[in-house]
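## retry 2 of 3
previous attempt timed out at serialization; input unchanged, resubmitting
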Amino acid sequence: QFGPTEAERRTIQLQAVVRIYDTTTGTMLESTSVRLDESAINEIITGAREDGRKTNNLIGDVTAAFATTAANTITDSILPPKVLAYTMGVVTFNRTAGSGVENGQIWEVYAPGEELIDPDTGESLGSEEISIGWARVTDAGSKFSKAQAIEDFGITRGSIMRHRPDGLPPHVDPNGRAG
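## retry succeeded, writing output
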């Protein structure tokens, strides 16, 4: 009705490496790559007044997403997510929607093991983690989150949780329910 229109597409790709160091020893604790790829389309209608373009918000959105991802990576490295309670197949853990937890996410559950010491250097390499289960988030809360255990080979209070954005491995039944 307004005549010909145009579309503007803006894509921003950001990739960075987040490294966490123990400043007292100079030891690198964690290194992870963060990649964000966001796009927005703005329709430009001839003769229509526009106060701003939604593609202009894209830089702010990508920057905020990167800051959140980097902060969560640092927090998860220093204080990994842990199981607070495990009752009848429901895993309650200490991460929230505000820290990036979303309904439907897949998390792998680990039993914390012994500290690993390099026999040549004597350097601590962190602690061993043994996979003991899988869970799917059912309630991303404001103080804690809940997940349904899919597999359970010893999930208990204090178990460590790791988000798995790639989902379940092929050998795990996605319809499984432990508990």
